[in-house]
Amino acid sequence: MRESAQLPKLSRIALIAIGVGQLTLICALDHLTGDSPAFSFFYLIPIYFVAWYLDAVIGVVFSLVSYFALSFVDSGFHLEQATTYLRSSANISALVFFVITAVTLSRLKSAYLRERTLSSHDYLTGVFNRREFFHLAEVERLRALRYSRAITLVFVDLDNFKSVNDRFGHAAGDAVLANVARTIKSCIRATDLIARLGGDEFILLLEETDSDSARIIVTKLRDGLNEQIAQSPSAVTASMGVITFVLPPASVDEMVRKADELMYAAKRGGGDRALFKVSLGDESPNTRAAAGA
Questions:
Q1: Among 41, 95, 132, 281, which is disulfide-ready with 247 (CB 3.0 to 4.6 Å)?
Q2: Across the strands, what pairs with 289?
Q3: Do 168 and 87 share a domain, yes or no?
């Protein structure tokens, strides 16, 4: 399952190498500009970098390395004099400040990531929430429109879910939702989107997926859900509306509405089935239904 759009991730070794490069450049500039106490603040740059992009441990390590580098440069690269600088109150204070900065920044990063996850993901299932899905789906809609590529939406609604809450309690119902989300994620591709719209409703966006490919993915998904249901005491099944847009409509709202209508048609037909539709961008889409397929 795809995560929210972000910059490409670098490896830990690459990030550490960038931090080392920053520290080396700062040492060189410090040496060239002479002995200036104010320049010691520039040694925070690589500490900021690794503490934010890596973790607190690497940040503390860089704090120690920066402390030794600062003392060595201040001593004019004389080893014996560097020992004296290492023991100076000014440099020790700088070390303490470096370490506190690294730990604090790392904790701020963790708090930021938690808040960002809570704002874009469903707290119960861990998949995208409604707001994030509509944001990401709009990006995919525009891309499909620009490059004339098919795009498929799958609207999933659980059948008889209310009976689970009534018979076994809401905790059991939450467990069912979490298991369903986990099963769906295991059956779709890494580039596909999945979100919980609310209650027992899930929505999938399959990018660059025509009707034949959508049928293969949905069949795999239904097999996975049936296998999970067989291992559960609840008799929960799923009704699905699967619509492939050869030409995406004017908005994601319209795409979701059409998939929702198709899902309700599947539910009215008895549930535990998927209905497939191909929208050609006109008012007379080709419709194919498959009960239990």
A1: 281
A2: 275
A3: no
Residue 212 annotated in active site: no
Encode pLDDT of 33-45 as tens digits: 876 666 778 899 9
**CA-CA distances (angstroms) from residue 36 to 2, 16, 211, 234?**
49, 27, 68, 72
Kindly write down the DSSP assignment for every residue of 17-60, as one continuous string.
HHHHHHHHHHHHHHHHH---GGGGGGGHHHHHHHHHHT-HHHHH
With respect to residue 7, please indicate whether it lies within any of the assigned structural domains. no
Asked if 19 contacts 49 with a C-beta cutoff of 8 angstroms, the reply is yes
- In terms of Cα–Cα distance, which of 136, 122, 141, 131 is closest to 254? 141
Q: Tell me whether residue 94 is exposed, middle or buried, using C-beta atoms within 10 angstroms of its C-beta: 0 to 12, 13 to 18, 19 or more.
A: buried
User: Annotated catalytic residue: which of 30, 157, 159, 200?
Assistant: 200
Q: Torsions phi, psi of 158, nearest 5?
A: -80, 135
- 3 band by pLDDT with thresholds 50, 70 and 90: low
* 164 shares its domain with 269: yes
Range of the domain at 46: 12-119
